[in-house]
Amino acid sequence: MTERLVAGGQVLRPDLTVERADVLVDDDSGDIVDVADPGTLDGDDELDASDGLVIPGLVNAHTHVAMTLLRGYADDKALDAWLQEDVWPVEGELTPDDVEVGAELGFVEMIKSGTTALSDMYFHVDRTADAVERAGVRAVLGHTAVTVGKDDEAARADLQQSLDVATELDGAADGRITTTFQPHSLTTVGEEYLREFVPKAREAGLPIHYHANETENEVAPIVEEHGVRPLEYADDLDLLAEDTYVAHGAHVDETEIELLAERDTGVAHCPASNMKLASGMAPVQRLRDAGVTVGIGTDGAASNNDLDAFDEVRDAAMIGKLAADDASAVPAEAVVEMVTQGSADLLGFDSGRVEAGANADLAVIDLDAPHLTPAHDLVSHLAYAVHGSDVRHTVCDGEVLMRDREVLTLDEAAVRERANEHARDLIARAEADD
Ligand SMILES: [Zn+2]
Predict the structure, then answer these.
(1) Is 207 exposed, middle or buried (0-12, 13-18, 19+ CB in 10 A)?
(2) Number of neighbours of residue 417 by Cβ within 10 angstroms
(3) Greatest pairwise CA separation for the chain in angstroms
(4) What are phi and psi of 210, to 5 degrees?
(5) Are strands 399-403 and 406-407 parallel, antiparallel or unpaired?
(6) Residue 135 in contact with residue 104, Cβ under 8 Å?
(7) Which of 54, 89, 136, 197 has the fewest CB atoms nearer than 10 Å to its CB?
(8) In angstroms, what is the span from residue 120 Cα to ligand 1's centroid?
(9) Residue 298 Cα to ligand 1 middle (Å)
(10) For position 12, what pLDDT does the model report?
(11) How many whole angstroms from 248 Cα to the centroid of ligand 1?
(12) Could you say which DSSP state residue 83 is in?
């Protein structure tokens, strides 16, 4: 057991005040032991936080991490065309090895930009779990099931696999992995399958994560077929509940916002992806005013195109103001809270706050930089001025994942080389099939 002192810096506290303090973490329990006045705590090892700000590791509430291999492959198209013409044909060629390599690349990027936890939706999930184990991050994983375009047998097998994977992987990587049941979306999984499998997931006690109301094209068909809004339809299917969160929610009306609040269902807001695919602007201020828990996610790297959660925080504030037509909407404090405690709440992790007893998931920001000068308000800097590249150290579960910008758990150069090879071969296979 090593008690490690993160010493000499300022600390962002759960109430978003900043004070000078040292933080003691235990790599055995994986918890924060104490946060106390500078110089009053002792550790076996020390991480230098001087000229730095200790913050909770950021929590990426919605991503498809292995999509790093598709980064920059196809841009500048609307969601439906982008998926059908570019993404799905390539994903059809993805091997389990590709998924593991893509996930490793994503985790290197996340560790280097201060993200310590994520919620992932994808397939070949056992290989993502292997990468989580090695990288040292914390993750909610799941197998994403789609039934459109499949025969009954294949559709049911896919949903069963989502249940099985969620049951099998829960608690893996020394408890750093938890799981969700994942019907892809309300329009890509047929009603009869949701009626059959959602009760099974609820019986098994599995949390549920799915895409909802991302674009107008996901709203209109449900209104047409069922005569109700998508989240009213979801409610009828028992898809709104406490341990449930939807990705996007860009197009939700007042009735749906009230339903989310009443059912305690959270929203993983993905501002960059929503802007890049011109999907729409989530009414984040209205969601928060109604009491809905909102977290922040990057979505996949193919629609972002990076996994730097600091970019996402800034984007969330900007688009939140534009959506509300109000510069005071979605202020700095709101977005910082959303990417830490908000996202952690959705994922069910006791992370997102620097406090004794919480998970020892931390990032230390180097404040010694021209773009962070002067320092009138460090919460403002976190929202609007800090970049992922300002992160000096990253700690998860009490383990140091990056020290002085060097990733310790994965070999960055080797990961990048493998990712380049796998991405090149993947695209070649997909284009050969055209
Ligand atoms: Zn997504």
Answers:
(1) buried
(2) 12
(3) 65
(4) -150, 165
(5) antiparallel
(6) yes
(7) 89
(8) 9
(9) 9
(10) 98
(11) 8
(12) I
Residue 10 in tokens: 């300022």
- What are the pLDDT digits (tens) for 122-148? 999 999 999 999 999 999 999 999 999
Distance 35 CA to ligand 1 centre (A): 36
Q: Could you give the CA distance from residue 77 to residue 14 in angstroms, rounded to a whole number?
A: 40
Q: Return the amino acid letter for 389.
A: S
Ligand 1 centroid – CA 60 distance (Å)? 12
Cα–ligand 1 centroid distance for 352 (angstroms): 22
Going from the Cα of 144 to the center of ligand 1, the distance in angstroms, rounded, reads 10
Residue 275 exposed, middle or buried by CB count within 10 Å (0-12, 13-18, 19+): middle
The structure tokens listed for 291 are 């009491």
CA 184, 144, 250 angle in degrees (round to 5)? 35
- What are the structure tokens assigned to 174, written together? 């020394």
User: Separation of 409 CA from ligand 1 center, angstroms?
Assistant: 27
Distance 198 CA to ligand 1 centre (A): 19
Please write the tens of the pLDDT for every residue from 231-250: 999 999 999 999 999 999 99
